[in-house]
Amino acid sequence: MPFDSPDLRAVAASLRELPPPDAAASAHSAELVALIRAAVDEAGGVIGFDRFMQLALYAPGLGYYSAGSRKFGESGDFVTAPELSPLFSRCVARQCEQVLRRLDGGELLEFGAGSGAMAADILLELERRDALPQRYLILEVSADLRQRQQQTLQQRAPQLAARAVWLERPPVEFSGVVLANEVLDAMPVHRLRVHDGALRELGVCWREEGFAWRVLDTATPAAVERLQQIMAQSPLPEGYETEVNLAAEGWVRGLAGWLRRGMALLFDYGFPQREFYHPQRGGGTLMCHYRHRAHPDPLILAGLQDITAHVDFTAVAEAALAAGLGVAGFANQANFLLGSGLLELADAGGDTRAQLEAAAQMKRLLLPGEMGELFKVLALTRGVAGPWNGFAVRDDRGRL
Ligand SMILES: C[S@@+](CC[C@H](N)C(=O)[O-])C[C@H]1O[C@@H](n2cnc3c(N)ncnc32)[C@H](O)[C@@H]1O
After folding, report:
1. Atom 14, ligand 1: which residue's CA is nearest?
2. How many CB atoms sit inside 10 A of residue 77's CB?
3. pLDDT, position 363
4. Domain range enclosing 152
């Protein structure tokens, strides 16, 4: 049952403004399109959006995160907080230090380490503070990014690079701090629609010259059940479209299986459930990033653009609690950074140029219209007790 999204005109307008890919990028994208089309054909003409997103981002050698485009930074598609300023990672390092000291040891483990900027800046800050862990573990699904992380560490912190160890899979047991910045938002989501009062799942088919949305005959029971629970609290209007991130919940259950003692700090953009599934957010939260332009159409530019969905932090916290972890803090990025000592770190002494640079970076990290309010941090713990500096300015657990 094909249908046209009401946002199509807006999408078409924003697409006209997207810079066209060059010949090499177009050829790369065409290869990935062929691979996804083969998956669609094999599945009888339609695949779930979660499968589409999985292939578009992670198909080996071709997906956005698995292939060699720049992605992060000015020459890429988007800028994350660790790329924007070392101040972000230095604050995170201070929260890590507090946990490691209370544990009397432990290691760090970063998921999806991007360019490696956060790993380098955290290790450098912990070195300054005489609080280095024995190892900084990284679990990266992209072989291409793993190489880039190795280069960044060699260039920025050569004396510490040997502490970085790349894992193929999560450890069996771990004590220390787990870090994930903008990782949950990059996990494949199910897309659902309220249709004639019932919930239908949206999939992706091929129509004429491109991918198109199509309602699936059968929806994923766990995704429908999750949204039904939410609708029991607050009904959603006809035509409402949204996402359910079962992968993030599964990831948290996995974490609970191997985190013996310590904290997981999950940074991402998103909301508590009541805000995420607000009746007025009827178009969902899918967002794509291509050469510093944000637009809502995930079905174009396969392999050349990032695809994200905001995070429902209540669902993540509930999955953690059900799996036996504690929820130790929830704050927006601005409050977390201020609690972790941002103002002190940004004080560049008498160096006017450095002061100006730090002020500009702080603005982007802190202001509500930039990253300060939309970005949140959720702390999950086991076997270690607060209070924690990062949540001393404000702890919003009550809003989850
Ligand atoms: C938006 S990027 C963020 C990169 C980096 N953390 C930063 O802040 O610049 C998302 C990252 O998450 C990684 N990722 C997604 N799912 C993952 C998973 N299940 N395990 C590990 N990494 C994952 C991707 O490969 C990618 O490196």
Report:
1. 112
2. 21
3. 93
4. 81-186+249-273+310-399
Average of per-residue pLDDT values in the chain: 93
Identify the pLDDT of residue 69: 61
Q: What integer pLDDT is reported at residue 8 of this predicted model? A: 47
Ligand 1 atom 10 nearest Cα: 183
Torsion of CA 10, 14, 15, 18, to 10 degrees: -170
296 CA distance to ligand 1 middle (Å): 20
| N-terminal to C-terminal alpha carbon distance within the chain | 36
Same domain assignment for residues 195 and 47: yes
CA–CA separation, 60 vs 69, rounded Å? 14
Q: From the CA of 378, how far away is ligand 1's center (Å)?
A: 17
pLDDT tens-digit series, residues 178-221:
999 999 999 999 999 999 889 999 999 999 889 999 999 999 99
Q: In CATH, what number is assigned to the domain containing residue 103?
A: 3.40.50.12710
CA of 194 to the centre of ligand 1 (A): 30
**Where is the domain boundary, 307, 324, 356?**
307
186 touches ligand 1 (CB under 6 Å): yes
Q: Looking at residue 347, what is its pLDDT?
A: 83
Same domain assignment for residues 268 and 300: no
